[in-house]
Target: SET domain-containing protein
Amino acid sequence: MASFQTKRLAGRGRCALASRTFSPGEVVLEEDAWAVVLLPDQQGLRCDYSLTCLEKLLRCPSTGLCFASKEDQKAAADLYYKAELEVAAARSKVPGANVAGAAPWCWPSHLRLAWRVLQRGAKSREQPWLNLESHWDELSESQQCDMETSAARCLDVLAASLGILDLEEAAPEARQNFQAVADLGDVARLVAAMEVNAMTVTDEELREIALGLYIHAAVFNHDEEPNCIQSFVGRRVVIRTIREVFEGEELCLAYAEIGQLSRVRHGNLWKHFHFRAFKTPQVEKRDGILSCVLAAPDWQPVEHGVGWDPDQGVLEEGAAPDALAFLKEVHHCWSEAKWQKAWKEATAGPTFRLGAGHALRLALARELMDEAVSQEQWSEALAFAREVCSCHQLIYPSGWPVVSLGWARLAKLELYHGHFDATMRCCQEALSGAPYLWEDRPVAGEEVRQMLSQARLEAQAASWQGTRKR
Ligand SMILES: C[S@@+](CC[C@H](N)C(=O)[O-])C[C@H]1O[C@@H](n2cnc3c(N)ncnc32)[C@H](O)[C@@H]1O
Model:
């Protein structure tokens, strides 16, 4: 029996309703991507098909796509890679030819994804995207026009990949494949639907690595207090419950960062997904934590480009330069090896007062922790990792993946410093917060379990030594 039924509900479109009662951690959906594209900064570092990160990859000279193995290359060839090779060949045959401008592997990620979706649909003569929400009628005329231009580019490249120069003279199979998906209006809606339905694929550490279209997962709506979370195993999505869910209840995910002021999150949901999210009591509470710690009454926008206003939170736009400018400033301080000073200024100085629960402070602590690790400054890395964990605890619900991953990272640093009791505590927090989290991250889970047993042994050895000395 399927785990959920799809139903349309007023004001929510299609919804996934639980077909039975689920315990926490149960899988409600496991699905391979219909199509996936690596984000630009991951190209050349990961396999284009399996998304595996490897030092040595096989690189295709015509398209620049990289693969972990011949098997992955073959699987990609069947899905999309052969078509992209055909496009490369078509481009190279006619010098100066403009097959829809830049090649699809250079397009922006959402458009590249739309092209791969379309290409696979043409091959199998299916259009599963016709059911996806695109919010077409809510787009402005100029947005619709842009989508139609992008759709025409996708169709030009599709024709090139099928070897079609003139539809009348094309081979019958190629013509039928093309005609199966060639409605410009439908393709424009497909392009629009990518903005609403593409999922950001993350690796074991929750780093964003790719965009994927998952036809069944695209039915899951957003909730401010979701009962499910997604994780990714290569190009597969796994959706699990995070609490008990009763038969008939709607299964929902969080589309947006929940450790963010709801004003920012709700603005993004409206802008990208065209629906209004409402504050729940938990959201009010989280907002309170995020903002009250910051409410310095005499706060003013400052030279580093980030201001705080008790009503508006971090001033990211308008007169005050954006938060990114501030992060850039911090980057500059790192390169000057003054990043500890930058952290102090950002969190406690007279001009920056980002309180303990603030999302920007958390973002900074994470970035500074990563920077300290990359510079092998282990005691600073430890301090920032502790900061990250304490911010997580304030902001996120318990069992939220990012919280457990933060504990695992801190455990590593505590172990490195020989703090065995602290390591054990961190490992236990990591493992107990969301035990199911590690099922989709077997390598990382095993690492935490090994750290736990090593810390236990070391702590025992240390206590025996202490006893002998006495
Ligand atoms: C990925 S789709 C989810 C499935 C969608 N309901 C459908 O009919 O295909 C995202 C869209 O679902 C709708 N949606 C998701 N969460 C919602 C919510 N909490 N309230 C209202 N609409 C929501 C919005 O239209 C959003 O753009």
About this structure: Residues 282-469 form a domain with the Serine Threonine Protein Phosphatase 5, Tetratricopeptide repeat fold (CATH 1.25.40.10). The chain has two domains: 41-197, 282-469. The CA atoms of residues 365 and 388 lie 6 Å apart. Residues 11-14, 132-133, 196-197, 218-219, 221-223, 273-275 surround S-adenosylmethionine (CB under 6 Å).
